[in-house]
Specification:
homotetramer, 11 helices, alpha/beta, Rossmann fold, 342 residues, 7-stranded parallel beta sheet, Dihydrodipicolinate Reductase, domain 2, 2 domains
């Protein structure tokens, strides 16, 4: 049993952490903070949690977070980098669900995120928390940078191809579609129901913050820099990411076997039978990434379809998966929810 | 640990039973039948269940259902009434999620459902499985008639008022809105996405099959016949029922206290604080019914708001709640899922 | 050909006015104002209007509105009451799509809207712009108070019953469901797609600002005060209002004939054949109100179903209908769009 | 004024033709046929058309279609090929909204559509009705093959690049997303609201019938065969297609100028300013195709975003555009609807 704190619990990753952690058998939620909602009962904001949790949001300064075994940052970018150091020094481990520690190149990070990094000295130590790649490092990490939602679906989809070295890694294409919850629980006109419903659009084509994160991840796998065109889209659903990935094959392989073998021991990656197409609802509310691999018309272009729930495997669920690894619990503990279908 | 069978597992109540029962600690799913899908793996139809269940749909005649401790009928109306008797005679208990045993007046049932009843002799024995009213009878029942989705939300909403005898029970109004999954997983044009999305309509205003079921239930509580206007509506969402109930007060009472006291020991009925409005997503995927009671402008009209997930408390979840009662398990076992929000 | 101005053109009623007026054969749009978007091209904000309109948003003080024949206020409540007087004095007629001039009782208005009225002396003159009731007054009006979206659907639905004096007007019930655009194009968390989609809820049950407006309108018809329980709901669609109205019959009449006769000459009210149920998409994008009247189970409760597009007949379309009347154009000119289905 | 007939008017392209043609100033709708709905009033099926059209569906054999100036086939594939010849012989011109005459290579057509072609001799004569490419031929055509919805958006998006010869035409990628109405008004489980809503998936990756149509069109432009990977997706909205197109640049050009110049005289193609992203609702209900062209991160991969309403520019609207050309009306007559936003 460990004591955990959550910083910034009023967003969608916050409420999703609460949904998962409040029924996790090895976790006691000690505190949840929010500067704007100090004193408000969590269930006042999130009726879905009535009967599950009795905490009130508290001020970060009064949360005694340094007495937690682990603190999750479910905050906007730029918060964790200011507070992580003190917690680590106090012996508290940290998982940041925002982007503060994802990019190893500080100046690259500062360019994309538009601010100076407050703790550049921690970046090297931070472990990028994609267990399917970094499991061993996560186990011993003090500080985990939880991956972004797009980067999770895209990297898991490209991984076997890049590892096998059988595609032109200079011209990868990731056409990715996200549900609206990916934009967060914040009042922006473009994600109003009357704007985003019955509508579809691409955005950020000139450049999106997840581009350098994906490129760094794929380059690490490839052992060299890679070229990627990344086009995110907003699709009128609440949860779900669907990545459609394209690469030019440079060698012939049994792609189905390649994918099945790569992920045969992964509890949260499911390779569909040949010819199938995953759908986002087949992972709704669960920590699973389902993948299918196609080679249409037997051409030299491989098409990979990869779906996740952006709030679970793309955020809170993966954070708990990392927590399980860090504290020696069974990796799947508390995150085995069956997808909600329909 | 009990062995259960599911007859008719290809609809939404079927897949929802599978979601719940496959993780229920006291249940072994012995067989699931479907005449149309004999030999098909369950996970072929419902990708969400991959890794959770290994069964194939089998023919009802080869399922050895009479060796189960319990059989759920998740079939269209008119099936359970043909097969229940043989199972009961073999010592197998039965929960029918369809309407075959809900109405005590056979001729009334035959009028609304347009067929002759195949087992009228079983109707008297069947227990109407609304635990909040019939818990004691459910415990010892051989045959449970699981309530309809509308009747569950409406009866739980009206119950305290009728029991207290403080409303004009001759002029009750139930204006109820249902998500589209309530119409089932069948190919009908009017529930296509392109028809039902971004659209709202009433239907069945002249008469809906759930009308006699609700009237029977409320009459039982009142101890006399009641008058009800029931207007169902189709709303563009997948899951959820929202009942807005109106009644004329004939006496003055503290309505908030009345509701809180009535349901204080009910694990699956949650009375919201005064002034609140429940929303359907606050119960999505869960077995909870949330209720708020209002008296707008201090007039003599009381307004009750009652929400459920039509596939859980309105169908599969309530069936498992009944199962738990019938077999002496903790009533909440295996149905404590936290609602999925957002 | 008249010159019109639009004050506050960045909301949904604004863009809807532009959609209609930019193709209206008798209208020249002289100016559209927005304090926040001065200098922005209208088509920059509303791509749908590219090629249709070349205006930029301008500052209200530079719009020469007093040289228009007519000014529409598509502003939040409390703006028109400050500016209408000067325009009227300059000979410019005014249609306010907000609520400033809808309620005749100033103190009642001030209670519900939470501000002091800036032009109480204009209230008596203002004509409530529901043509089906007030057509003759609209024709000669200088100042029209365009009805609210809920009040339009509810009043047109109840009108024949109240006029005929055949219902208990002390206990009317209006259970009304609105699409999310009714909440406006403003950044509020509760109308985000991730909040409002796949969700249904009532709101404002203790009291909603449209309650006094509806009660005033129905009382005017009845010739005495009326009693109304009004429960608005938010439904996950973009456009559309569905009013389900309940009243106790005090006399026997052929309701179908009553409704057909009352609206036989109304170009924008369509009475469906007996037994039918209107759906909101059957009026999407159009100025039509479709109504069906039912008497379920032959009881003494009449059920009226009334649907409109909240942005057209419930706002901009009705405003143009009023404009047509005020300036002697054919009443239907420029607002004969066929609903967009599916 | 011409007399037109519509064969197969009960689907979405049928009702959309009726929406457009019933207000077209040069068209008299003489007959609309449906074998299944003989004698049913059109407005019984499509309430949206009440007051606009008085026809009943009639049997094709009694429609005197050969006395029409023009017959639209809004039928499933395989119908027009059986009936077109007799009509053409009678002097009636034909526009087929299905696929019967789109593919010039008969055996290719028969392979993808799984049937023998009933009128192979007409294929050569048929004009592929994409006015932006074939305007001159359409004007004199007796028989027009109206393009598919995906092919319209994809071809208009790729056209300037292929004409200019500045991309590797052997490795084009079209990642396209469609609203659910594209699947038609037919009762299929996978397009139910409860299946398709809040869900996203690719389908037909191994091969989709629109692949050969697109390849033929692009090859005609290129003057040589081309290579294309085409991945269609189902997105939870009613109307709209969003094509995201990828190509490798083989030469340097000002892409923005290239696109603007190519379409400068096209009334229904709108090139957005540099840096913009079109959204499907910006064309909802209209005949417009909006396109943006990007070169992200200044790499050698060009990204084109192309949106249409699949039922208008992707079907009925384009058919009327072709009709206007064939009969010498102004090309934009009757199809200048402003998109419905929100």
């Amino acid at each position: 049993m460990i004591n955990v704190g959550i910083v910034g619990g009023t967003g969608y990753t916050g409420v999703e952490l609460l949904r998962i952690l409040s029924q996790h058998p090895e976790v006691n939620i000690q505190a949840i903070t929010s500067r704007n909602e100090v004193g408000t009962k969590v269930t006042e904001l999130f009726t879905s949690l009535r009967g599950q949790i009795n905490l009130k949001f508290c001020d970060p300064t009064e949360a005694n977070l340094d007495q937690c075994d682990l603190v999750f940052f479910a905050t906007p970018n730029g918060i964790a980098m200011q507070q992580a150091k003190a917690l680590l020094n106090a012996g508290t481990r940290v998982i940041d669900l925002a982007a503060d520690f994802r990019i190893k190149d500080v100046s690259e990070w500062e360019k994309w995120y538009g601010m100076s990094h407050a703790s550049p000295e921690l970046i090297a130590e931070a472990v990028y928390g994609l267990p399917e790649i970094n499991r061993d490092k996560v186990i011993n990490a003090r500080l985990v940078a939880n991956p972004g939602c797009y980067p999770t679906a895209v990297q898991l989809g490209f991984l076997p191809l890049i590892e096998a070295g059988i595609v032109d890694e200079n011209h990868l294409i990731a056409d990715v579609k996200s549900g609206v919850s990916g934009a967060g629980r914040k009042a922006d006109v473009h994600i109003l129901h009357a704007e985003a419903s019955d509508n579809f659009k691409a955005y950020g084509v000139p450049g999106h913050r997840h581009l350098p994160e994906i490129k760094q991840g794929l380059a690490n796998i490839a052992g060299k820099s890679i070229g990627l065109t990344f086009v995110p889209h907003l699709t009128p659903m609440i949860r779900g990411i669907h990545a459609t990935l394209y690469a030019r094959l440079s060698a012939n392989t049994d792609l189905q076997t390649l994918y099945e073998q790569r992920y045969i021991n992964e509890p949260f990656v499911d390779i569909l039978p040949a010819g199938k197409h995953p759908e986002t609802r087949s992972v709704r509310g669960s920590n699973i990434c389902r993948i299918a691999v196609h080679r249409p018309q037997n051409s030299d272009t491989v098409v990979v379809l990869s779906v996740t729930d952006n709030l679970v495997k793309g955020a809170a669920g993966q954070a708990v998966q990392n927590m399980n690894l860090m504290f020696g619990f069974q990796e799947t503990l508390g995150i085995q929810h069956i997808p909600l279908l329909p």
